[in-house]
Design brief:
Blueprint: H1 54-67, H2 88-94, H3 97-100, H4 112-129, E1 133-135, H5 141-158, E2 167-171, H6 177-184, E3 188-192, H7 202-205, E4 213-219, H8 231-240, E5 244-248, E6 268-270, H9 273-276, E7 291-293, E8 305-309, E9 312-316, H10 332-368, E10 384-387, H11 389-392, H12 398-407, E11 414-415, E12 424-427, H13 435-453, H14 457-462, H15 474-479
Parallel strand pairs: 2-3, 2-4, 4-5, 5-6
Antiparallel strand pairs: 1-7, 6-7, 8-9, 10-12, 11-12
The structure holds pyridoxal-5'-phosphate.
Pyridoxal-5'-phosphate binds at residues 80-81, 140-142, 175, 177, 219, 248, 250-251, 272, 287, 289.
Length: 490
C-alpha cells in the first residue's frame, strides 16, 4: 500500500529496474540534503483535501459556470449597466504578448507601442466627447467621479476658495454613486428632488445657487433614460458663479456621434469604458472610468498621462497634478480593448451603435407601454423605465416580475432604481440584441403581467422555481455571504 492516501495505484510497491545506461545525477551535484527527516517538522496527519477525480473537478466547474447567467447566455437588460456584447477580437488584442507581458516599469523607449495605445485612446475620447483632455487612471465609474471631484477641490484650493465651496448639487435622477463620491471627496451633498418631470429645469437650481456651490452633478442621459435638454443653460448658470458642471457620462452609449458633452458646457465627465466601449464589467472591476475635463481643469489632471513627444510618446505629470489615483498607468488591458472597439467601429459605427441602442429601448417601450406603467412620458434614449403600478393592484411587485423573468429564461432588468420611480423596472437592451430576442423578452414580460392579472400572484411570489436556487434572502446573501467551502464534517 502506498503511504500517500489518494495516490493508491500511482506509487509502485517495488521500483521497476530499468536496465538502461545513463547519468543518475543528470549533470547535477550529488544530492546533499539529509535523508533523515526526523527533525524536520512534517505534518503528521493528512491535510484533508478533497480527493477528487479529474473528471469530477471538470464537471464541477463546468456545472457552476452554467448556474450563472451572463451576457454570453442571453439578453441582459440590466438598466444603467449597459451589458453589451464584448467582442472577442478585443480580448485577442489585449492578450498579445507585447501588451499582456509589458512590465509597468519598462522604460519608455521599450513601451512606445503601449504608450501609443494610451495616447490614441485619449485622443479618441476627446474626439467623441469634445473634452479638452482625459486621465485614463480611474478604475471604474465611481472612481472617476471621485477623481473628477478631487480635480474640482484642487482648483478651488489653488484659488484659496475651498473652505467656502462646500456644496455639490445632485438631482435625484443622478446615479446613486454620485452622492457617495461627493461625500467621499469631502463635500456636502444637496439633493434636488424632481419638480417638473424627468428633466432638470434651469430655474429649479436657482434657489440653491450661491458662492458655496462647487458643482452640480448631472447624469446625462439621466437614470430615467432621458436626455437633460437644458444642460447648456444649467452650465451657464453655474459658470456665472465660477462653479462647475460635472456630467456623469456613464450613459454615453446613448449619444455617441450625436452630441458631445464638451459642446454643452460640461467641465468634468467620467465615462465607463466597461459599458460604452465594450470592455468587460467583471464583478465591479477592474474596469476603466476615464475622466475628461475642460480647459480650466487640465493642469490638475493626475499623472502619469500619456502624451505625444516629437515623433514618439511619453508619460507626463502636470505641475499642479492631484495625487495619482491608481498605481502605474491604470488598467492598461482595458485601454487596448476600448481602442480596439473604437477603431473597429469608427465614428460612423459608434454613431450607429448609439442609434441601435436607442431604437432597441424604444422598441421595448412601444411593445410594453400598454401593459406596464410608464411613469414619465419624456422620450426614451438607451433605456426605458416602467413601474410595477398596474401589477401592484394584483399583488405583484417589481421583485416578483424580476423573479418571474428568471423562470422564463431572462436576466431581470434593474429594479427599484432610479429611486424617483416607485417599483421601478429599468430596462436597457443595448444595441447587441436583435428583434427576435427583444420579442421573446416582450412575450415573457406580457406573460408575467397576464399571470398577475389572472390570479397568479401567489405563483409569482414563489418564483423562480426553475432556476438552480429558488428565491434568495437577498439582504442576508449580500450582508453575510458564505464565500468559503467547508467540508461536511468540519
Ligand atoms: C450612470 C452611472 N454612473 C456611475 C456608475 C458607476 O460606475 P461603476 O459601477 O463603474 O463604479 C454607473 C454604473 O453602472 C452608472 O450607470
Amino acid at each position: 500500500m502506498s503511504d500517500f492516501p489518494g495516490t493508491t495505484g500511482l506509487i509502485l510497491e517495488e521500483p521497476i529496474l530499468f536496465d538502461l545506461p545513463g547519468d543518475p545525477d543528470a549533470g547535477l551535484d550529488p544530492a546533499d540534503v539529509p535523508e533523515d527527516l526526523a527533525e524536520v517538522p512534517l505534518r503528521q496527519a493528512p491535510l484533508g483535501l478533497p480527493n477528487v477525480a479529474e473528471y469530477r473537478v471538470v464537471r464541477h466547474y463546468t456545472r457552476i459556470s452554467q448556474y450563472n447567467y451572463g451576457i454570453e447566455s442571453g439578453l441582459f437588460p440590466l438598466g444603467s449597466c449597459t451589458m453589451k456584447h464584448n467582442p472577442r477580437v478585443n480580448e485577442l488584442l489585449a492578450a498579445l504578448d507585447g501588451f499582456a507581458w509589458l512590465h509597468p516599469e519598462a522604460p519608455e523607449q521599450w513601451s512606445q507601442g503601449a504608450l501609443q495605445v494610451a495616447v490614441e485612446l485619449n485622443e479618441a475620447l476627446q474626439a467623441i466627447t469634445g473634452m479638452q483632455d482625459f486621465t485614463l487612471l480611474p478604475a471604474a465609474g465611481a472612481h472617476g467621479e471621485f477623481t473628477g471631484l478631487c480635480l474640482i477641490s484642487a482648483y478651488y484650493e489653488a484659488r484659496g476658495e475651498l473652505d467656502r465651496r462646500r456644496k455639490i448639487l445632485i438631482p435625484e435622477t443622478a446615479h446613486g454613486t454620485n452622492p457617495a463620491s461627493a461625500a467621499l471627496a469631502g463635500f456636502e451633498v444637496v439633493n434636488l428632488p424632481p419638480q417638473r418631470g424627468a428633466v432638470l429645469q434651469p430655474d429649479e437650481i436657482l434657489p440653491y445657487l450661491d458662492d458655496s456651490v462647487a458643482c452640480l452633478m448631472l447624469t446625462n442621459p439621466n437614470t430615467l433614460g432621458v436626455f437633460e435638454s437644458h444642460i447648456e443653460a444649467i452650465a451657464e448658470r453655474l459658470h456665472e458663479l465660477d462653479a462647475f458642471l460635472y456630467c456623469d457620462g456613464a450613459n454615453l452609449n446613448a449619444i455617441m456621434g450625436k452630441a458631445r458633452p464638451g459642446d454643452f458646457g460640461v467641465d468634468v465627465i467620467h465615462l465607463n469604458l466597461h459599458k460604452t466601449m465594450s470592455t468587460p464589467h467583471g464583478g465591479g472591476g477592474p474596469g476603466c472610468g476615464p475622466v475628461g475635463v475642460s480647459e480650466r481643469l487640465v493642469d490638475f489632471l493626475p499623472g502619469p498621462r500619456p502624451v505625444r513627444q516629437g515623433d514618439g510618446f511619453s508619460w507626463a505629470t502636470p505641475a499642479q497634478a492631484i495625487e495619482p489615483v491608481k498605481q502605474f498607468y491604470g488598467h492598461f488591458g482595458m485601454f487596448v480593448r476600448a481602442l480596439a472597439y473604437i477603431r473597429r467601429l469608427g465614428g460612423e459605427g459608434l454613431r450607429r451603435a448609439s442609434e441601435r441602442a436607442v431604437l432597441n429601448a424604444n422598441y421595448l417601450r412601444a411593445r410594453l407601454a400598454d401593459t406596464f406603467e410608464l411613469p414619465f412620458d419624456d422620450p426614451s434614449l438607451h433605456e426605458v423605465v416602467f413601474s410595477d403600478k398596474r401589477q401592484k393592484m394584483h399583488g405583484v411587485s417589481a421583485l416578483d416580475i424580476a423573479k418571474g423573468l428568471i423562470d422564463r429564461g431572462f436576466h431581470p432588468p434593474t429594479i427599484y432604481f432610479p429611486l424617483v420611480v416607485s417599483g421601478a423596472l429599468m430596462i436597457e437592451p443595448t444595441e447587441s440584441e436583435d428583434q427576435a430576442t427583444l420579442d421573446q423578452f416582450v412575450a415573457a414580460m406580457i406573460d408575467i403581467a397576464e399571470q398577475a392579472a389572472s390570479g397568479g400572484a401567489d405563483a409569482l411570489h414563489d418564483a423562480p422555481t426553475r432556476s438552480f436556487r429558488g428565491r434568495l434572502d437577498e439582504a442576508t446573501a449580500a450582508r453575510k455571504p458564505i464565500l468559503r467551502w467547508t467540508p461536511a464534517d468540519e
